[in-house]
């Protein structure tokens, strides 16, 4: 039991690169985490973690051990989930964590199709930013993640769902003209908070294009972003998949700015080299089957 506690503390530090964030994840104090890691280092006779001004870094020995410990954690977590559906692949729990855009505009269609096929499987998922969804999968609180990035930590693997275009949108009165960079720089850019993959991709595109985003309005959801833009608060860079309803209703328009080019990837992610539970395997099979339809 002592070794298990030490390994869990070390795994949390390895995942989060921070003693304080590891303590938050395990709901214990930071000194308790430090003590468990120190005891593990004493037991193994190796330094595993180095404290830095930015948090914590693994030594070569720590990196080697983390590779085994993180995979073992994932195996145990999935083993417990797999027992729920033992003998009956149509039952059990599918655990997911999704980021905003794919979680709101893509995942519901997929979950509806999955539920039609496997009504006995309980679906448990949360919705946040891509960075949070990746952390949830890394911590094995969810088996699968649906995220707006394909840049993954080493202990996760994934499959590309689609390459999604990011477009510039505004209120209807902004239609009918070709926009130049200085004109857009003078407007307020309405966006999600940091951690959003769409925001990261659009800011990277703006930087590459030499577009200075001087005025920002950060909001907590894409629905609030769209409502603010439709009311004339400014413009937004947003995934094309997220504005179908607004374009048809005429409450938003895509701005005519041919020089603007931005996109981001959406992916399904899971623990590397760890067998999936039956519900997750069936969900992933459905993802692969329907993937071609999402880009049409």
Key words describing this protein structure:
alpha/beta, Arc Repressor Mutant, subunit A, D-Maltodextrin-Binding Protein, domain 2, 3 domains, 7-stranded mixed beta sheet, two-stranded antiparallel ribbon, 12 helices, globular
Overview of the structural elements:
By secondary structure, this protein is of the alpha/beta class. The model has no long low-confidence stretch (mean pLDDT 89). The strands form three sheets. Strands 3, 4, 5, 6, 9, 10 and 11 form a seven-stranded mixed β-sheet that branches. Strands 1-2 form a two-stranded antiparallel ribbon. It is built from twelve helices and eleven strands. It folds into three domains: 2-79, Orthogonal Bundle (Arc Repressor Mutant, subunit A), CATH 1.10.10.10; 89-162 and 265-294, D-Maltodextrin-Binding Protein, domain 2 (3-Layer(aba) Sandwich); 164-263, 3-Layer(aba) Sandwich (D-Maltodextrin-Binding Protein, domain 2). It has helices at residues 2-16, 19-26, 30-44, 60-84, 100-105, 107-117, 130-138, 181-185, 197-209, 222-230, 244-249, 278-294, and strands at 49-52, 55-58, 92-99, 121-128, 144-147, 156-170, 188-192, 215-219, 236-239, 253-254, 263-271. α2 packs across α3.
């Amino acid at each position: 039991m002592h070794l298990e506690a030490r390994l869990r503390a070390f795994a949390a530090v390895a995942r989060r690169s921070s003693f304080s964030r590891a303590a938050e994840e395990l709901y214990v104090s930071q000194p308790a985490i430090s003590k468990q890691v120190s005891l593990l280092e004493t037991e193994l006779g190796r330094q595993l973690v180095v404290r830095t001004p930015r948090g914590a870094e693994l030594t070569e020995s720590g990196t080697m051990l983390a590779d085994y410990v993180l995979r073992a954690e994932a195996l145990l977590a999935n083993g417990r989930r797999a027992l729920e559906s033992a003998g009956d692949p149509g039952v059990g729990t599918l655990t997911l964590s999704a980021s905003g855009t794919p979680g709101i505009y893509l995942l519901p269609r997929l979950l509806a199709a999955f539920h039609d096929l496997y009504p006995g499987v309980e679906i448990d998922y949360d919705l946040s930013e891509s960075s949070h969804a990746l952390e949830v999968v890394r911590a094995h609180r969810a088996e699968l993640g649906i995220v707006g990035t394909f840049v993954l930590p080493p202990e996760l693997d994934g499959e590309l769902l689609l390459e999604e275009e990011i477009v510039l949108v505004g209120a209807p009165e902004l239609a009918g003209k070709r926009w130049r960079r200085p004109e857009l720089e003078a407007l307020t850019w309405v966006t999600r908070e940091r951690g959003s993959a769409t925001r990261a991709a659009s800011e990277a595109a703006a930087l590459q294009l030499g577009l200075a985003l001087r005025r920002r309005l950060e909001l907590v959801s894409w629905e609030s972003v769209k409502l603010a833009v439709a009311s004339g608060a400014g413009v937004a860079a947003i995934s094309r998949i997220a504005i179908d309803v607004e374009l048809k209703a005429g409450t938003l328009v895509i701005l005519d700015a041919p020089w603007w080019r931005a996109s981001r990837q959406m992916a399904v992610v899971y623990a590397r080299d760890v067998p999936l539970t039956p519900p997750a395997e069936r969900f992933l099979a459905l993802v692969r089957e329907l993937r071609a339809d999402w880009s049409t």
